[in-house]
Amino acid sequence: MATETLIPMESNPEVMNKFLQKLGVPSNWGIVDVMGLEPEILSLVPKPVVAVTLLFPISDAYEQYKQKEENDILSKGQEVSSNLFYMKQNIRNACGTVALVHGVANNTDKIQLNDGPLKTFLEEAKELDANARGALFLKSESIINAHKELAQEGQTNAEDPVNHHFITFVNIDGILYELDGSKAFPINHGKTTPDSFLEDAANICKKFMARDPEEVRFTVVALAAFE
């Protein structure tokens, strides 16, 4: 259950990258804007891309789909890799931070974290389940304080009443997973490859948009390697 409320983080690559670097992510990895979801625009995104984060408005259509999806998975089951790092979100408006952590945590074989709050958190959280990871995150003052500092700095729409949410997509063992700390579990979206991952994740993002055709407030960013 959420016990604290934070100022939400904006989907702003500059702010997100400051946040990630504070946590110990090296400067040769960072967040970039994805300006469109068609192949010719996706081809302009720096490669490799190891995570995709979607910011979307929470609507009745989304909530209805979320419940149906959960019920379907509970009845049919799904495979989830033991190599997947997933945590629950226990702090209101921390979804941007949880989404960024999910992206980095599932790519530590590629991203060489510097000593810092995130490396410490991931080492302590490694053997825990998703709920215990969420509880540990609540106690990770360095990460929470970095969120507070950067969310304040990046806040340009503090008066916007729309309830937005961040989720992240990653490729683990050739499967595309949706990681949302407010859902009951990760979502297995089927097979992917390192080369097709960005386009495959973009196709899932398109489905979110199609469920809310009147809505335009969707933003997509990617965690990518910089030159």
Automatic annotation (TrEMBL):
<feature type="active site" description="Proton donor">
    <location>
        <position position="165"/>
    </location>
</feature>
<feature type="site" description="Transition state stabilizer">
    <location>
        <position position="89"/>
    </location>
</feature>
<keyword id="KW-0788">Thiol protease</keyword>
<comment type="function">
    <text>Ubiquitin-protein hydrolase is involved both in the processing of ubiquitin precursors and of ubiquitinated proteins. This enzyme is a thiol protease that recognizes and hydrolyzes a peptide bond at the C-terminal glycine of ubiquitin.</text>
</comment>
<dbReference type="Pfam" id="PF01088">
    <property type="entry name" value="Peptidase_C12"/>
</dbReference>
<dbReference type="GO" id="GO:0006511">
    <property type="term" value="P:ubiquitin-dependent protein catabolic process"/>
</dbReference>
<feature type="domain" description="UCH catalytic">
    <location>
        <begin position="5"/>
        <end position="225"/>
    </location>
</feature>
<dbReference type="InterPro" id="IPR036959">
    <property type="entry name" value="Peptidase_C12_UCH_sf"/>
</dbReference>
<keyword id="KW-0833">Ubl conjugation pathway</keyword>
<dbReference type="GO" id="GO:0016579">
    <property type="term" value="P:protein deubiquitination"/>
</dbReference>
<keyword id="KW-0645">Protease</keyword>
<keyword id="KW-0378">Hydrolase</keyword>
<protein>
    <recommendedName>
        <fullName>Ubiquitin carboxyl-terminal hydrolase</fullName>
        <ecNumber>3.4.19.12</ecNumber>
    </recommendedName>
</protein>
<feature type="active site" description="Nucleophile">
    <location>
        <position position="95"/>
    </location>
</feature>
<feature type="site" description="Important for enzyme activity">
    <location>
        <position position="180"/>
    </location>
</feature>
<dbReference type="InterPro" id="IPR038765">
    <property type="entry name" value="Papain-like_cys_pep_sf"/>
</dbReference>
<dbReference type="InterPro" id="IPR001578">
    <property type="entry name" value="Peptidase_C12_UCH"/>
</dbReference>
<dbReference type="GO" id="GO:0004843">
    <property type="term" value="F:cysteine-type deubiquitinase activity"/>
</dbReference>
<dbReference type="GO" id="GO:0005737">
    <property type="term" value="C:cytoplasm"/>
</dbReference>
<comment type="similarity">
    <text>Belongs to the peptidase C12 family.</text>
</comment>
